[in-house]
């Protein structure tokens, strides 16, 4: 079965609310990280600016030295560190992780560079409320080393995908894809930096759609509140075009 064809959002202007709820009523977000936390920072900034009508209440890392924990603390967000190396197996770690997440009573959970494969049990617990960002135009290049693989294949386009997390790794239905054109002779580092910049645009937008109900997970598919948008087809945001919604 071919992947759903993306639909361009550059002309849509009606998918983000004009009013921000009372802070005590804002959806609660838990973020899982493993490293620098640049996508976490984009989400923090989006919430602070009101572009994402939600509140990040918890950041969890499986690495004590993850700079994202410092970013969270500087923003006044509760943090937690759970060392996966202390657990007998992935299931035991994920059970502890799920318990920690539940302590914050989040409405949604976002993976922002969390370098762990989640067990089906944990995914099922948060199914439909759990999203991830992946540095490729899924279904192309699931897994690691996506930028190098795109260059080695002489692709002309590359980008990133925000998708709902399902038990199969990097296979959940896409919400939005950020797309850029690979430049002739482009280096790996340059391409990586461009994709990162695009990620910082599309992840806040995807979370804004999710928390406002513009998009939801239903029957294994991405479903849009706007009837003009096709079910299970991701929106697209292009590197060379401004966001028409709230960017």
Describe the fold and architecture:
29% of the residues lie in helices and 22% in strands. The protein has 247 residues and is an alpha/beta fold. It has a single domain (26-238), classed as Formyl transferase, N-terminal domain (Rossmann fold), CATH 3.40.50.170. A hairpin with a 2-residue loop joins β9 (215-218) and β10 (221-224). The chain starts with 6 loop residues before the first strand and ends in a 9-residue tail after the last strand. Mean pLDDT is 91; it is low at 9-18.
Give, in order, the helices and strands: EEHEHEHEHEHEEHEEE
For the record, the CATH class is: Alpha Beta
CATH-wise, what's the superfamily?
Answer: Formyl transferase, N-terminal domain
Largest sheet: 9 strands, mixed
How many H/I helical runs? 6
Net shape: globular
**N→C terminal distance:** 34 Å
Task: Give the strand line-up of the largest sheet.
Answer: 1-11-8-7-6-5-2-3-4
Number of strands: 11
Q: Structural class, please?
A: alpha/beta
